[in-house]
Structures are given as C-alpha cells and as structure tokens.
Amino acid sequence: SVDQHKSAEHLSRTASALPPFDGATLVYLAQVSTDAAVLYGRRGSLPHQVDAIIATAEAAERLGARVVVKLHPKESPHNPNPEPYFRQLTLEWLQADERFAAVRARLGERCIVDAENQLHTFDLIRQAQACVTLNSQAGLEALALGREVVLCGRSFFGSLGFTHEAHSAEEVQAALAAILRHGLRLNREGESQRFLHIFLRHYCVEKSE
User: Fold this and answer.
1) Cβ(10)–Cβ(35) under 8 Å?
2) Nearest-CA neighbor of 109 among 21, 13, 172, 28?
3) Where residue 85 falls among pLDDT bands split at 50, 70, 90?
4) Which residues are registered as beta bridge partners of 111?
5) Phi and psi, residue 55, nearest 5°
6) Contact 66, 187 (CB under 8 A)
7) Is 117 left (phi over 0), alpha (psi -120 to 50) or beta?
8) Which residue has the higher pLDDT, 78 or 66?
9) Using the 8-state DSSP alphabet, how is residue 203 labeled?
10) Given a cut of 90, is residue 1 above it in pLDDT?
C-alpha cells in the first residue's frame, strides 16, 4: 500500500502502459538531478546521474533487453510546483549527451524515456527484471516488491547484502548481465522487506503539521 501514501510530488500518472515486449525489461529509477542525495551520493567513475543512465541503456543493448528511464515525477512538465527550476532538467541533460543519443538510436523502440510521468512507477517495477538507481528510496521499494536492484551511488539501504553495488559503467553492465544471463539473486529471504519495515516504522519521523 506504499503507493497510497506518496506525497503529490512523487505521484505517478496512470495514462499509459508499456507496450508488449518478449525480452527482459530494465527500469532506471531516476532522481531529481540537483537533489542533495544525488549530488553527495555519487561515487566511483559515475560522476553524474546521466552516466548511470547511459550505462544501463548500454547494458540493455548488449543483453537484448528493453530499458525504461523513469524520470522523477518532480521533473515532469506537469509538476505544479511554482518554482520549477528543475523541470525536465535530467531530460535536457540526456538530450544534450551524444552518448545517450547514440545508444537510444541503436535501441530504437527498446529505449523508453518517461519524461511526462505517464507511466506508473510501481507498474514499471512489477514488469522489470531488474531496476537501477543511484540511491532512490524507490529502489528500496523495488526490493520489497522482489526485484533485483543495482545501486550506482551510496545509499542508506546499500551494502547490506541484498543489493548489487556498481561503481562504474562496467560494473553496472556486469551486474545486469549476472542477473539476466545467470539468474544471480541477492534479494532473497525477505531481508529487504524486513529492512523496509524497520526503517519506515521505527526510524522515520511521521509527516504531520
């Protein structure tokens, strides 16, 4: 029921669904690129969230998979925030990067960028074989839904045994290959679900007036 408790800036629209696809689906769960968790959570040779997205897209190309880049709802043009300085920010950076343009052209319909917040985040997670993120809490929610998660940044739920850790583009691609080709599973036995429960119930301050 976590989706019923999201704040307005995190809600997903439900206007569209993914087209059918026979292969595996990878979902990159993007964050607002100027968020403090992104700026201070980067590591290794992935200095920018765009680098992690490109690494995921290149992995999809090599593995014959589809990649869906779910940009943060807060960056959507539909976000009602009166100070939308970050509106479509990550999209603009992606569009300005020649590496992403090249891999997107090669992938064709196998690369979907949801910049309009038309695809429901949890529906995407349920259709994914693996999710990649820098350190978004959506990654923890994906773990609770039983998905394998690759973390490209320092995260409060990382390095606990149930996530794949990647410090470079090569490590992102190796982790996704291990998941899709070799069936490697680190998210097992309810460890991530127990962590999510303890974190939300005992270590988070309730939002209220």
Assistant:
1) no
2) 21
3) confident
4) 67
5) -60, -40
6) no
7) left
8) 66
9) S
10) no
Q: Which residue in this structure is represented by tokens 């045994």? A: 161
pTM > 0.90: yes
| Token pair for 76 | 């959507």
Cα distance between residue 143 and residue 162, in whole Å: 8
Q: What are the CA-CA distances from residue 39 to residues 5, 33, 75 (Å)?
A: 26, 7, 16
Token pair 């995407």 in the structure block, residue: 124
Virtual torsion, Cα 60, 107, 153, 190, nearest 10 deg: -40
Q: Which whole number is the average pLDDT over 186-209?
A: 90
Are the CB atoms for 13 and 120 separated by under 8 Å? yes
Residue 208 pLDDT: 77
Q: What is the mean pLDDT of the chain?
A: 91
Closest CA to 92 of 151, 33, 146: 33
